[in-house]
Every structure is written in structure tokens, then in C-alpha cells.
Amino acid sequence: MTDLLLLPGDGIGPEVTAQVRRVAQALTPDLKLDERPFGGVSYDAHGVPLTDEALATAKAARAVLMGAVGGPQWAGAPRDKRPEAGLLNLRAGMKVFANLRPALCFGPLAEASSLKRELVEGLDIMIVRELTGGIYFGEPRFIEDLPGGGKRAVDTQVYTTAEIERVARVAFELARGRRNKVHSAEKSNVMDSGLLWREVVTDLHRREYADVQLEHILADNAAMQIVKAPKQFDVLLTDNLFGDILSDAAAQLTGSLGMLPSAALGVAGTPGLYEPIHGSAPDIAGQGVANPLAAILSFEMALRWSLDRAAEADRLFAAVEAALAGGARTRDLGGALTTVQMGDAVLAAL
Ligand code: IPM
Ligand code: MN
């Protein structure tokens, strides 16, 4: 049985996952690793961004770790065969509905943030993003030609009570182990799906989680508050689209998008999907300068949430902290280390 399936993907994906492989070999040599093509490289080789075989292997593994997908060379591919469609199919196929995106500011990186040190020092936010519903998957969706010229494009935002409740439950549970506070972001002032979101979260809170502090916040205000006073947040619960946007903003607080890992979880006992939240970064792909820490920290989350290796996860987290404290910096963090050298720094600290 595969413990960890690596899906390096496109752009900087293979470069950063190569460092995960090195770390895994040093820290947990007994884990059985496997690898499959994914995204654009799979489309080029097999005509689809995610083969049935790769999805079946992912579902049978204990955890899946991907690098990144997409790039300008696939912009012309049919929409259902684009690299990003492969990622959405993987998330849906694995049924990983709860996406945990921790925005954590490592002490030595407080200077690397574009915000003032006092705003981000000690920052520890957990974004819980719904990952298998909403406008990313809603039907109908199409672009049609209009008789008089021009076109009309439709996307559909759709949520059910059950979809909202199961992800809200994850947010409340996590909050209990943290600072006991959940902000639930939506646009209930303009969207019906936002109204239902607020209603379901309120109801679940009253029934089962009244001990947790709950605040509803409009998603636009959440965006402003994230850059104004980010430390007010503990757990931030969002739908799929708002979570995508708000987590990029939160990432920048931590110094770099190259620092943020994520874990996508389904029901207990099913494999988790671990992804650095940065993309394929075509502008620097192939140069060996990408920051591998988001991928390495995604492996840390996999050890903790899927592989039952909390002690090794703690060691790896401490090693990343030590490497940063020792001054290890890739270019995105204002330094000059290559991807491999950052991997070396983490291995040395281990
Ligand atoms: C992310 C990415 C993906 C998303 C893309 C690559 C489909 O931006 O994981 O945040 O929008 O979910
Ligand atoms: Mn994103």
C-alpha cells in the first residue's frame, strides 16, 4: 500500500516535491512513496490531466501530496482537460471537502511581510475553505453566443445544508483546540447561498458548539480586516471561492506565498490531499529558485493528519523553524538560496 503518493505536476511543482522526497527519505525512510504524472504533463502524455489510474492510486493511498498544476502552454486546452480541471477532479474524486490553510508567521520572517512587523508577528490563522462545492463545481456553467453578437457566460454558486454543515463542523472542532474563535465569511447581504451559509452555521453553533465564539463577517470586510488587523482571526471559515481569495491575502502576511501549506480532508479514514497553496509559478519554473517550504510544510501536515506521525511532524516543523532562524532564505524571502539549498538547510536542521 502506498503511504504517500506524490503528484509533482507542472511548473515549480517537480522542483519543490523533489525536496519533499529528500526530507521524507531522511525523516521517515519506512514510508512507501509512489509518484504519478498530473496536470499539464499528464495531459501531454495521456490526453487528460488526471488519469483514472492516477485517481484510483490516490484514493488507495494514505495521503497524496501535489506540487502545482497549470501553465501558459496549456491555456488553449479544452476547459475540461486543462491542468486545473485535473486538480478539481482530484479534489472531488477524493471527496476532500475541508481545506485547512494555516497562515502562520514564523518569527524570523516577520520582516519579510509587506505589513508592519507588529501586525504579523505571532500571527496564527487557520482558514477552513470549503473545497468540493460552490461556484467551482456548480451547474449550469457555460459560455454561449448571443444572437445579436457578443456572448453570455454563466457560473453557478450552489450550496446545500449538508455541505455547509460538514465543513463548519471542521472549523468549530479546530477552534476548540486553538483559541476557540470562528469567523464565518460570506456575502449574505447579496447572495442567497450566503444567507443559507449564515443560517446553517448559526444553527449548528447553537445546537453543538455554543462554547465556541462565533462571528459572522461579510467576505469583503474579511479581506479588509485581514490586512488591517490579522491577529483578530483564529479560525476563518469560508466557501470555496472566498477561501481561495482570502488565503492568498493571508499568505502574503506570512512573508511569502511560498510559505503556505494546506491539507484537504474528507471523512475520517479517507486519504488527505496536501498542497502548497502557491501555483506553478511559470515565471521561475525550471530555474531551481522556488521556495520548497510550502511543499515541505504540506508534508508536515500529511504526517500529522493522515500518516499518524505527529512526533516526526513536530521534528520537521522545528527543523523548518531552525533553518529560518539560521537565516535560510530563498529569493521570495529576500535571500539567495536555491530550492535544493533550502532543502539542504532543512535536512541539516533535522
Ligand atoms: C488554489 C489554486 C487552485 C484553486 C487553482 C489552481 C485551481 O488557486 O489551490 O488556491 O483555485 O483552488
Ligand atoms: Mn488559489
What topology emerges from the helices and strands here?
Elements: E1 4-9, H1 13-27, E2 33-35, H2 40-46, H3 52-60, E3 63-68, H4 83-94, E4 98-104, H5 117-120, E5 124-130, E6 138-145, E7 151-156, H6 161-176, E8 181-186, H7 192-208, E9 213-218, H8 219-228, E10 235-238, H9 240-253, E11 263-265, E12 272-274, H10 293-305, H11 310-325, H12 339-349
Helix pairs in contact: 1-10, 1-12, 6-7, 8-9, 10-11, 11-12
This protein binds 3-isopropylmalic acid and manganese (II) ion.
Describe this structure in words.
The chain is an alpha/beta fold. The chain folds into two domains: 1-97 and 267-350, Isopropylmalate Dehydrogenase; 103-265, 3-Layer(aba) Sandwich (Isopropylmalate Dehydrogenase), CATH 3.40.718.10. The protein has helices at residues 13-27, 40-46, 52-60, 83-94, 117-120, 161-176, 192-208, 219-228, 240-253, 293-305, 310-325, 339-349; strands spanning 4-9, 33-35, 63-68, 98-104, 124-130, 138-145, 151-156, 181-186, 213-218, 235-238, 263-265, 272-274. The strands form two sheets. It has a ten-stranded mixed beta sheet, with helices on both faces. α1 (13-27) crosses α10 (293-305), α10 runs antiparallel to α11 and α11 (310-325) crosses α12. The longest helix has 17 residues, at 192-208. The radius of gyration is 20 Å and the shape is globular. The mean pLDDT is 97.
Rg, Cα atoms, Å:
20 Å
- Biggest β-sheet: strands ordered side by side in the sheet: 2-1-3-12-11-4-5-10-8-9
| Helix/strand order | EHEHHEHEHEEEHEHEHEHEEHHH
Shape label: globular
State which percent range the strand residues make up.
15-25%
Give the helix/strand class: alpha/beta
The number of E-state strands comes to: 12
C-alpha end-to-end distance: 27 Å
CATH superfamily of the largest domain: Isopropylmalate Dehydrogenase
Mind summarizing the main beta sheet?
A: 10 strands, mixed
Bound molecules: 3-isopropylmalic acid, manganese (II) ion
| Weakly predicted, low-confidence segments | none
| Overall pLDDT level | 97
CATH architecture of the largest domain: 3-Layer(aba) Sandwich
Individual helix count: 12
Q: Into which percent range does the helicity of residues fall?
A: 40-55%
| Count of folded domains | 2
CATH topology of the largest domain: the name is Isopropylmalate Dehydrogenase
CATH class of the largest domain: Alpha Beta
